[in-house]
Every structure is written in C-alpha cells, then in structure tokens.
Amino acid sequence: MFKAWVSAFFLSILVLVPISATASFFPQQAKLQYVDNHGIPVNMNFNRQDKQYRIDVSLNLILYHFNFVSTGTVSENILTPISYMDTRQGKPYAHAVFSKQAVQFGKNGADAQQVQVDGPVYDMFALGWQLGINNGQLAKNTYLTNGKKIYPLKNISFIGQKQLSINNELINVSQFRLYRGDDVVEYAFAPSLNGIPVRISYMDNGKIYTLHLKSGLIDGKAIKTL
Q1: In three state form, how does the secondary structure of 107-118 look?
Q2: Which of 84, 114, 91 is nearest to 13 (CA)?
Q3: CA torsion sign, 23 to 26 to 31 to 32?
Q4: H or E segment at 214?
Q5: Strands (DSSP E) along 39-120, which ranges?
Q6: Residue 107: is its pLDDT beyond 60?
Q7: Domains defined for the chain, CATH in brackets
Q8: Residue 7 has pLDDT above 80, yes or no
C-alpha cells in the first residue's frame, strides 16, 4: 500500500491554490505540512531568493526516505525549471535537466535521453506552483516530466467550486482537472490563500490517493485562514 502511494504521490504531486487576481508574485518562503489519506506526513518547502527558486518535498519514515527537488528561475508569475532530482533512500533515482527547447532526462543507471520540445516543460512540483499562481492556466504546448518520461499535458479544465475542510475549518476552493496521458489528476485551488498547495486527488489503477494540507507558514506567518 505504501509503495503504491509513493508511486501515485510521485506521479501526481502537488495540488495548488492560485494567488488572488491582485497578486502576481510567489512568496519568498513557504513551509507546508501535509498528510495523505493513509496518514503519512509529507513536507514541502518553497524558497525564492533573487531570481532563483527551489522546491523541496520530503517524506521521511523509518524505512523510507524520499526527496524531490526542483530548481529554476522565477520572474514575477513565471517559473522556468532548470533541474529536477528524485532521490530515494539517499540515492539518485531519476533526474531531468531543462533547456529552452530540449529536456535531458533518465532513470539512474540508464542512458540519459534527450527530446526536443515546442513549449515549456515542468516537473510536478514546478507545475503545481505555476498552476496555482495562474489560476489553473498554462502556456500552450506545456509538457510534464517525472525524470523518467516526458508527457504532453492535455485538457486542463475547471470542474466547479466547493468547500473543503482543512483543520476542521471550511474553505472555498476552485477545482481543476488535468489529463496526463490516460491519467487524471484533480487539483483544488483556494483563492483566499497565496498560491500554496491545498489538495490533490489522483487515481491510479482504480485507487484514489489524496495529499491534504494540514498546516504551514508563508513568509514566516502561520496560515491563519485555515
């Protein structure tokens, strides 16, 4: 069960909340704590310094240690990834290096591959933050990589509004659906929060996996609206 969750988490990571219409910049720092639908804690840190960003997601249990790191440049409301690394049990598992029209990627121990692209390419983490700050909108011909494969993204659509319970408080969210090949990921965005992940629901082999925000700090301040 846990290994199945890790696979789903890796492929679908990150639900994001868009920044409000009057704000167009990423925070300097966000330290976020999540819990999945099996009670497993997950931490995500977003850091922006000058024109650089780093997104660090970690899952640390006694026998399982996973770390996913995305780095790149940031300009107002646009992230441009430079590298992505998936590390498991302290060893590199998969990676991707981005340039303007190409991506080099591969699983550790295998020959690296390179493909040409005609649009921006994101890892799951950068994609999530980009979706959040732009209210579910992406550039034409956007691609996604998990370090092992490259996927064109299709049919990002708004699927309605609802209220979610976070820390026993109800918060209004807007929901979006994203197709990655035959896989479906549903994101929830809360306009009242500043571009941070709130919830993601991902189906894999008929099973639904959920990453749910529990608490966090944005630029040193607690998320009081939760």
Answers
A1: ECCCCCEEEECC
A2: 84
A3: positive
A4: strand 207-218
A5: 41-49, 52-60, 65-75, 78-88, 91-98, 102-107, 113-116
A6: yes
A7: 2-222 (2.50.20)
A8: no
C-alpha R_g of the chain: 16
Q: Residue type for 117, please?
A: V
pLDDT average, residue stretch 193-200: 76
Using CA atoms, how far apart are residues 33 and 48, in angstroms rounded to an integer?
Answer: 18
Determine the Cα–Cα distance for residues 212 and 34; give it in Å rounded to an integer: 5
Tokens 């896989």 belong to residue: 183
Q: Is 59 exposed, middle or buried (0-12, 13-18, 19+ CB in 10 A)?
A: buried
Phi, psi of 200 (to 5 degrees): -140, 140
Measured in degrees and rounded to the nearest 5, phi and psi for residue 41 equal: -75, 145
**DSSP three-state, residue 15:** coil
CA 93, 212, 209, 64 dihedral sign is positive
User: Structure tokens of 89?
Assistant: 């049990």
Residue 20: DSSP 8-state: P
CB neighbour list of residue 27: distance below 8 Å, 6 or more residues apart: 46, 48, 194, 195, 196, 218, 219
pLDDT for res 206: 65
Does residue 135 have a pLDDT over 70?
yes
Q: Two tokens at 81?
A: 């990834």
Give 80's pLDDT tier (boundaries 50, 70, 90). Answer: very high
